[in-house]
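Let's sit down with a protein and look at its sequence and fold side by side. We need material for that, and I hope you will provide a protein of your own picking. Once you have written the record down, we can walk along the chain together.

***
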Amino acid sequence: DIRDALQGYSDFLIEVYVAASRIPKGKVTTYGRLAKRIGRPKAYRAVANAMHDNPLYPVVPCHRVVREDGSFSGDPKRAAGRREQCRVEGVPIETSSVVMQEEILY
């Protein structure tokens, strides 16, 4: 269970990682949508920080969480890796961002 692996983490981080672990393959969400999903709509920056520090990849698929405009945050090398992983999973990518279509949003 993810919660067992996250003993010692804050309740907020546990909520974020559990919610992110439920994002299906081939779908993406945004930091803002994930924050809303856990009932903390203003905490999108904290969600982004949590994804950056994700201790349970790939159980918690942080590559499926993007910015509102579909771009990948972080340093260019890590962003390129997350973008490629999404592409492999069937997420439509154009230039360097996810094509934000309703059918792929979680």
Notes: The mean pLDDT is 98. The domain at 2-104 is CATH 1.10.10.10 (Arc Repressor Mutant, subunit A).
